[in-house]
Amino acid sequence: MAQLNMSIEHGQPWEAARANFETTIEKARADYARWIHAVEWSEDRTSASLSGPSYAVVLDLDPTHVHARGKIPLALKLLEPSVRRFIERTLRAQRGEPT
Question: Which 3 state secondary structure label does DSSP give 20?
């Protein structure tokens, strides 16, 4: 297992960031149900614990960043740069910027 510890600036107003955070996680849960077996939300829905085959990750939203931390298989750790680029492209699209 490898440690995941990533923070990405979302560049969105707080209310938009909160709505997009929840929507994106629920869409990922539906689209990737094979890999995302469970999502546990915090009461205010600014934190979600995701788990699946051999991983557990906590995603936290704050006014400026999305933070991801947890334990993932080493093979997924090797994909971290690609995952970061995908997340950054998704955030740009949510802000209406060219991707």
Answer: helix
The full set of domains in the chain, from first to last, is 2-94 (3.30.310)
pLDDT in tens, the chain (99 residues): 899 999 999 999 999 999 999 999 999 999 999 999 999 999 999 999 999 998 999 999 999 999 999 998 887 778 788 878 888 888 888 888 876
**DSSP at 13:** -
Give the Cα-Cα-Cα angle 68, 70, 72 (nearest 5 degrees).
110
Which residue, chain included where needed, has tokens 């080493």? Answer: 74
pTM value is 0.84
Structure tokens at 46: 């600014």
